[in-house]
Please model this.
Amino acid sequence: MRSHRVQILFLLISIFFSGVVSANEGSIAFTGAMIIDGTDAAPLADGVLVITDGRVRSIGPASEVSIPADAERVDVGGKAIMPGMVNAHGHVGDTLGLETGHYSRENVLDQLGLYARYGITTVLSLGGDEAPGFQVRNEQYHAGLDRARLYVAGSVVNGDNLPEIRSQLNANADFGADFIKTRIDSELGQLPTLAPEVFQSLMDLAASRRLPVAVHIYYLEDARMVLEAGAEIIAHSVRDLEVDRDFIELMIENDACYIPTMMRDVSTFVYESEPEFFSDPFFLAEADPAVIAGLSTPEYRSSIRNSPASQQYKTDLPNALVNVGLLHEAGVRVAMGTDTGPPARFQGYFEHEELRMMVDAGMSPADAIRAATGVAAECIGQSEIGTLEPGNWGDFIVLDGNPAEDIANTRLIDSVWIAGNRVPR
Ligand SMILES: [Zn+2]
Model:
């Protein structure tokens, strides 16, 4: 009798959960769109994309793809489809308005919803991740998902001695971090930084825990040092100098990825006067008027104008653009990342601005799209996202314009889909 009740209970629980997690059980076929799949392949002119149980079942020209008889059909004729974007350097869950220190499950989920509405369907959070973020990461492997996917680094590993670094790194690894994030940067002389021998030990320890390391750098010399120690991800631009042949060769040797985060630098000085984007409807659609007001006071503007650090970042930004061009040209993998999440770095909106800057730096729109999709997914070690290939998650954006013709067309969002679920507006 008792075991019978338990069985019934399990049956009820499984019915309940199957209803929750399989919102899109069955197939959906998107027809008539130009499709960019996130690989090197040429776009499909009249493509069909079939999603079954949250994943890509088939993709190809209309003449070659057979649509299951019971599939729901969505006519997207005249539109473009591209994979959902992957932000390879963000931060999630800590900021509320212009304040930090508000980390919570609710805030993590709210911000993942915001990213998703802008077409950013995956975020690698490089630091500041607490238990609720790990939990949210663990809950995303199902076909009912309709917010951005999250990967986490835990706390930023930092300190001036090895025992401290070992205990921080092991704590993150034990907790299930996807990445180790550390910084080799004095923030223009304000913070202590890691000595090369300590950094090498950090790399060895991370390798023993089978975790890749993303490094915050500013100076070319530091970036070279971390590559020599085996770093896989350069998490910001080299900003003091133009990269040289040596550095480029090290990047290629390590098969390392470079994440420019140019909008991070823009955010350090742009509020010294009214930024152009404060009148962009695409920004205003999601922006909090109180945050805009807070960034627009005369006191705040003058604090930015009078901050030597802000002015230094502004002066050095052109180096960042030159370096993106040089590295991309040399065949280094450049991945889209923005460092959004901290106050005044607008999640979702800044990613589109970053793409525009990548094109300004010399990448073609098609290359910038690759950087934000297939390449970014590779760089963060996730093989089931970033490209619309059979078996991958059905994460994509339907656009009212071709982004490979004009990168600004990534803003013309018709709808965003995650695991084949339409992201709520
Ligand atoms: Zn960051």
